[in-house]
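<context>
A single protein, sequence plus fold
<sample>
Here is the protein in question:
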Amino acid sequence: MGYFSNLFSKEKEVVEARNGNPLFSVSYDGEQTTGGLGAPIKYDLDYQSLRLRSWQSYLTSPITQTIIKKFTMWVVGGGLKLQSEPIEGLLKESGITIGSDEITRSIESRFKIYSKQKTTDFSEKKTLDQLAKTAYVNSIVGGDVLVVLRYEKGNLSVQLIDGSNVITPRWGDEMDAAEKRNNKIINGVETDSRGRTVAFHVKTGTMESERVLAKSKSLGKETAFLIYGTEYRISDNRGLPMFSAVLETITKIERYRDAVVDGAEERAKVPYFIEHDILSTGESPMGNNIAKAFNLDNNQEIATDVVGNALADNVAVSMNKQVYNMPQGSTMKAIESKGESNFGSFYSVNVNAVCSTIGIPPDIALSKYDSNYSASRAAIKDWEHTLLVNRKDFSSQFYEKIYEFWLDTEVLKQNIQVTGYINALAKNDNVVLSAFRNARFVGANVPHIDPLKEVQAERLKLGNSADSLPFTTVEAATEALNGGDSKGNLKQYSAELKEAKELGVDFVVNQPKEPVNEDKNDATK
């Protein structure tokens, strides 16, 4: 009764009359035809069930695993590289002078070493880059993952906690204690009256939990935070799995695929059937062979006929085939199904819809690059934008917070010496600190389909006056080609060049070739 009563209970109010016709004010809820949209639904998210269903899909669905692995490989890959880019102009205004690139190089080198050590992991099992990959997968599949930074004995380590363990304690006096602090605990996250995250409640046993502070009291820095896959509404404080909107669709697609494959397997076991018309005697063409099969002597190993031939009537020894003399009114037919023939188009359409919902071009997800140049380029550029946005989002949630904490500790330990930085920390000058901490985390770039065309197009935009301007650096080119470290390559090449000269190796300088005039060559023929 609730639904139908809502349909007919929309408020109507005569607001005025014009030319004798009353004008009504009607409540509008998006529905133009009564019953067209059905009753509105308010979803209260069941995070635990969504998490379980998403992990189940990741474990059992090839579609889910393919998309997740493709996202992870491109967004994080083997880890993101720090590019320290302090805003020097703003720092000079505050009296901080970096001086040279040596400081930024030192920061990048030290953080690179830090990222490769397993002591970075609280459990000492993975490097920071491996932790980043694990955190990303858990955030987009499970919805969120809790990251805890622990500073012990001068070392910063990172701990990952499955989001399923962040729960609201229903035992003990945690809820009462939170109320006394004028806080509230929702979905395991404790917030204050301003909505700021104060702590996380982590399950440690059947009836036990630990309160993990979001900020360290001694350091005053954020030491615990959630990494989200996707978010729903402002009022919701937990993350959603990436596949929340398509979980049911993926499950039905997989069931359809399994049904088609199972059906094809069963039909392969019985490839033919005999159809009798009204004039048929009902006789089976295999009847004689069945009779022969029961006419066996004790010494025979296989069924033979009275002449001693094998049971199968071979048309030719080389072919080893069998023919049947069909009785009158009988026809032998193959079992056919349109399911297999229509499978490809049906499956592709639905997989494409899933990929579009997730935000990855189907060609990229399935590694199918069989379209024309324009279509492939459009798909790659679309994916490149999605990739950069997702990488930036993940970097800001994971890498940047760890980097800021690490940089502060390195400066305080005087491993990195910057005039004015400690003073900015003491004053909590966020502008100066942010200017010095400014950095990017870069990963593998999406390659161009035709790099020459891309460069030529940009050259045409700039005009002839910019022909000598470089579009890249040695470092960027080395990264694009996966050629290792550019500075190390230069040093190694310099040493090899010096050694070659000492050994008397002659170097031949290749002269540029003259352009070939095809018209001239044709005229001389």
Notes: Residues 404 and 437 are 7 Å apart (CA to CA). Residues 472-525 form one domain. The chain is about 45% helix and 15% strand.
